[in-house]
Amino acid sequence: MSEIQTGDYYTRHFSPGPSDDTLIINMGPQHPSTHGVLRIIVELDGEYILRCEPVLGYVHRMHEHMGETKSYTQYLPNMGRVDYLHALAWNWAWCGAVEKLAGIEVPERAQYIRVLTTELNRISSHLLWWGAYILDLGAFSPILYAFQDREIIMDLLQIPTGSRLTYCYFRFGGVSADLSDAFLAGLKDFVPYLRGRLPMYRDLVTDNVILRKRCEGIGHFSPELCRRYGATGPVARGSGIDYDVRRAEPYSIYDRFDWEVPVLEAGDAMSRYLIRLAEIEQSLKIIEQALATIPSGDFIAKGAPKPKWAPPRGETYFAVEGARGKIGVWLVSDGTKTPYRVKLRAPGYCNLSLFAEAAQGVLLADAVSILGSLDLVIPEIDR
Amino acid sequence: MLQTEIIVPAELVRLVLGIVALAAFVGANAIVLVWLERKVAGHIQRRPGPFEVGPYGLLQTAADAAKLIGKQLTMPAGADAFLFWLAPILAFLPVFVLFMPIPFGENLYSLDMDLGLVLILAYAGFGVLSLCLAGWSSHNKWGLLGAARAVSQSVAYEIPLLLAVLAIAFMTGSFNLQAITEGQGPWPWQWNVAVQPLAFFIYFACALAETNRAPFDLPEAESELTAGFHTEYSGMGFGLFFLAEYANMIVVSSVATVLFLGGWQGPVFSGWWWFLAKVYALILAMMWFRWTYPRVRFDQLLNLNWKWFIPLGLANLLVTVAVV
Amino acid sequence: MNIATCPFPAIAITATDYAKCGSTAYCYVEPRNVVRAAKYFFEAGYFIEDVCGLDLEEGFEVVYHFDSFTAPGRVSLRLVVPHDKPVVPSIAGVFPGAEWHERETTDFFGVVFEGNPNPKPLLLPDDMTLHPLVKEQKKRQPAVNVFVVHRLSEGKEPTAAKKKPADEDEEA
């Protein structure tokens, strides 16, 4: 018999544990429930996870270095590629950081446009997560229903942005195009439509006893765990931490709308699930109010930066609330046309870092459930 | 010339004809069922399902089969070649034996035997052996996990399945499937399901588990074990497991039809069409479950069995025996 | 927070304009005191946002951003290590979430975090010796060229008031 490759190369950094009847297994990078190219080295005792270690970097593109070689405007399209599911939040994070550094005022209408499109994008991100998470738990059909709704959002967002996934819509001082009447009318119809769909999702999926058994009490994160690892977004809010960047570090015009930050104390996969569904409703609420009060005016500031523009020197940190949590951009400028340093804080990166601790001692099937409940977008984690 | 008269027993003729007919039946049914499954899945998921290949996409399965047959058979380095290729064959072969005692119509059966039910239950055990061998010989850790799951699941669920079947056997006083059919009347309230609803429920749930259909598809569990026991199989190696799964679905539905739903008898025009209609109704229900429910977790699956199905099955059997 | 009441040894603490630079304070420490500083932030209820590197003429600046769930207000903890001996104690023992951020900084800058429980490349390949965010010597800027500290008290007039990191290097 030929010499068998035992896979030692890929697990060479993962020293075997004290017991010799455990199984060291590579979950990924082509595993169906790691949503792309995440690899997790797992040591299994039967089906129980003794310890595990995520291995990153399979779609690492060194966005931060690209930031140092491109001009401020040229770096805009990169943002849609960091997190392709909530691209507009990253658009906003980058534009917001540059605007904060250079002191650019964003016109009123542009603020509304940003809120409308970003919240709509958040809904589509949550919908996709919802379908994919149920898929992880073994039910195939809900993702198609989620895609049906998401399709409408993508059709809508295509009107102002011109793209369907990796949006590059925001500009320093506004957005690239005004909202058309078709978009506004479509959005007006979409809000009641999705509101009507959500009860169906609750009846068909959320209240299913098998789903509840797979989520309730699974993957308990204490608020302390979230704090030690810097977890934010629905992961932190599902653990009883009342923290939303839109409220904590108010930016743009979110303080004008009447909306709530959903928080649940349980800290399990089910609470993270319910938080995201509640956030869809809150986003709809914001959209509805923004639609009613959107003023007329410029969609981009007069005298907005030209492509070859250089901001003043200095540094700033700007954070927005993405679908996965706190998106932060640390920007250092030396006054030239290219940034001196760009640091992207990806929420999924911090959220995933607690997985190794949270997954100790759980069943393999529960690990899949926990992993899904973190809402991972691997390109965002690897950047 | 010496005249020799070859006497062929009528039973043998029936058996050979039966096996040939069953092979055709299983093959044709698998093709129809795969198409049906994809259509059902499509309609549950608000999409049309296959519709390009042939009228209503009917030839889609044939195209898939041609693709599977044309694919290269690969085997991982370090796998046990004999067991690796034995497993898919072992998964598919017993299916013919399983069909033999099933009475499709009044005279439509290939083997009339008093212990038909026992034969089916005995040969159904081969299924788990093939899954175990497939996972074990693949030299793949996911396969191994799938095999371990398959064994513990099948062994556990065979017990309540037997208990449910035994309740019917006690009631009828026979293991002969034809006799069990004839023990029931043509109308739904004369069927065994009316007398033994609990046994039917237990039987059907266990049948789902025994055929590894969702929500009990843990040996495959795509999102957990990539593909479980058949991770390493390509082409027809996978194809045979696939066929066996559909064939097993027909078997368990057929047995359920015979035991609980009055077999080939119907209120009007009793015959094999009634049998097929009932079998297909059960299969459609199985497909419906598959495309609707999430997967249960492994310990939940076993808890369900040991804490609910077995005690309930035992109680049901005791009550049945006491009444009989 | 100011230098007199600071519970850990700091070199300088500057209250900054949150609206302009996104931080309420810059807090410079010597590298050897960073764990004590992190412990203070941990006990004060902060969470770790990220650990960033920055290549300056004076050395590698490592910036830790801490924020609080209950009382938002980012504090940026900073230290400078020389290019030829970039060693910083790891704070992963205090904030386990810092482990990945530190490994990332090691990948990008070659800054070594002593005591990191898992000091392996995270985002870059194992055999990669290049640290992509280390700048060429001629492209490096001195700190005064990139930092404009928006002091809270002055507010309107930006002044280059960053503390000279040279003496930190001597002490470290």
Based on the model shown, name its key terms.
heterotrimer; A: Cytochrome-c3 Hydrogenase, chain B; three-stranded antiparallel sheet; 15 helices; 12% strand; globular; B: mainly alpha; 67% helix
State the gist of this model.
The complex is a heterotrimer of chains A (383), B (324) and C (172). Chain A is an alpha+beta fold.
Describe this structure in words.
The complex is a heterotrimer of chains A (383), B (324) and C (172). Chain A has one domain: Cytochrome-c3 Hydrogenase, chain B (Orthogonal Bundle). Chain A is 46% helix and 12% strand. Chain A has 15 helices and eight strands. In chain A, the strands form three sheets. In chain A, strands 1-2-3 form a three-stranded antiparallel beta sheet. In chain A, strands 6-7-8 form a three-stranded antiparallel beta sheet. In chain A, helix 4 runs antiparallel to helix 5 and helix 5 packs antiparallel against helix 6. The longest helix of chain A is centred in the N-terminal third of the chain and has 29 residues. Chain A is globular and about 70 Å long. Chain B is built from 14 helices and no strands. Chain B is mainly α. The mean pLDDT of chain B is 82. By secondary structure, chain C is an alpha/beta fold. Chain C has a five-stranded mixed beta sheet. Chain C has a two-stranded parallel sheet with strand order 6-7. The longest helix of chain C is centred in the middle third of the chain and has 12 residues. Chain C is globular, with a radius of gyration of 16 Å. At the A-C interface, helix 1, helix 8, strand 6, strand 7 and strand 8 of A face strand 3 and helix 3 of C.
Total of domains of chain B: 1
- Strand count of chain A: 8
Written as H for each helix and E for each strand, in order along the chain, the element string of chain B is HHHHHHHHHHHHHH
The CATH class assignment of chain A is Mainly Alpha
Contiguous uncertain segments of 5+ residues of chain B: none
